[in-house]
Structures are given as structure tokens and as C-alpha cells.
């Protein structure tokens, strides 16, 4: 059971928008910053978003993040077949003194 | 560009010790946190622990009793030792660099990951 909660899957047609949620508590998301990681099939995770909403260089603005209270959200607009992947949220948990991740959500492009 | 490469035995016997090394190329290990994360087949990411270049550590409470991390800045390497392994420790093991965001947050995130190495306990 992951400390952060993500739905297991979401799907949408190409060009559509998907919203991915990540729910935590005051000891993690509520008082720290969230990062998001994309894991394409058979590859290592890759940084997508940090500090809740900032994109590293090279990440298209189709990917955006936000946070409200103890939940964070990743939006993917203009969905492409290349976006099919697992997406993980992660942050520091101040009570555990440990990094915690969501269970991951599988995005399927129909 | 910084690259990370995990290395070590791909097969470990039950009750023995799993030992892995993460080698950093194109950069230094100084002034960074180095995290280890694992992923069983078909499952999510599990954070194992991290070590700063000075030797400070944090561990996953569920693994703390069995894990030791070390760092050798002269060799640009971080190492993981996991004792008394069982089949439940079978996973792909990743190392990742943590860097702080720019002001005002300075919050850490994992910006570079290794490709991972598969370890089977059997």
C-alpha cells in the first residue's frame, strides 16, 4: 500500500486531456513539494515536473502540474500515443523522513 | 551530461547480501543526495534510501534494519548493501540523483536516473 494514492489507470483518445490525481497527507504533500515521473514501458523513470508545477528543460508544456492542500494533479493535454506510460507522483514525507511515491497510474491512449 | 550506471550481481541467493554500485559519469558525487529506488516486476516504485556526499543517510523505515548505503566521492560511486535477502527483494534497482530546486523552495527532486539493474533472489 503506497503512502500516496493514485488511481490505477486512465485512458483517453489522442488529442484529449487527462487529469491524474495524487492524494497524500499533511506530512507529505500538504507541506512539501511534489514531483512527477514518467516511466515509458521498459525504461527508467524520467523527471516530468518538480516543485509541484515546474517543468525541466525539454518537457513540453502539454504537461502541467498543480497542488492544492494534500493533493496534487498532473494534467496532460493534447494526448499523444507516445504519452502511454506509467506516471508516478513523489515527495518527501516529513514524519517518515523518507521519500514516498504513489502507486503509479497507467495512461492508455485509445 | 550526468549519467548513472547501476552494476552488480544479477542473481543473489536467499539469506545472502545484495550489493550494488551506482557509478556517476559526467559529473561529481559531491554536494548531492544519491537515492536508491527499486521496482518489482509489474509494481510501483519503492524508495530504499539516500546518502549525501558527506555520508548522511535516510532510509525507508521498512528496510532500515537491512540496508546500508555508502558513498565514495573519489570514485564517483554510491553503493547499496541489502542483507538477508528473500524473493521479495527481487526487483529492478535504480539509483537517482537528487538536486535542490532554485530559490525560494530549495526542495529536492530526482533529476537523473540510472537505467536500472535487475536483481533476482533465487
What does this structure look like?
The complex is a heterodimer of chains A (110) and B (122). Chain A has 110 residues and is mostly beta strands. Helix content of chain A is 0%, strand content 45%. Chain A contains no helices and nine strands. In chain A, the strands form two sheets. In chain A, strands 1, 3, 4, 7, 8 and 9 form a six-stranded mixed β-sheet that branches. In chain A, a hairpin with a 4-residue loop joins strand 7 (85-93) and strand 8. The radius of gyration of chain A is 13 Å and the shape is globular. The mean pLDDT of chain A is 97. The mean pLDDT of chain B is 96. Chain B is an all-beta fold and 122 residues long. Chain B is built from no helices and eleven strands. Helix content of chain B is 0%, strand content 53%. Classes of the chains: A mainly beta (110), B mainly beta (122). At the A-B interface, strand 7 and strand 8 of A face strand 5 and strand 10 of B.
Descriptive labels:
heterodimer; A: 110 residues; mainly beta; six-stranded mixed sheet; 9 strands; globular; B: 122 residues; four-stranded antiparallel sheet
State the end-to-end CA separation of chain A. Answer: 28 Å
How many helices of chain B? The count is: 0
* Number of beta strands of chain B: 11
Helix content of chain B: under 10%
Radius of gyration of chain A: 13 Å
Query: What is the count of helical runs of chain A?
Result: 0
Class derived from helix and strand content of chain A: mainly beta
The amount of helix of chain A comes to: under 10%
Work out the strand percent of chain B: over 45%
Coarse morphology of chain B? globular
Radius of gyration of chain B: 14 Å
* Helix/strand order of chain B, N-terminal first: EEEEEEEEEEE
| Molecular shape of chain A | globular
| Contiguous runs where pLDDT drops below 50 for at least 5 residues of chain B | none
Largest interchain contact: A-B, 26 and 25 residues
Distance between the first and last residues' Cα of chain B: 36 Å
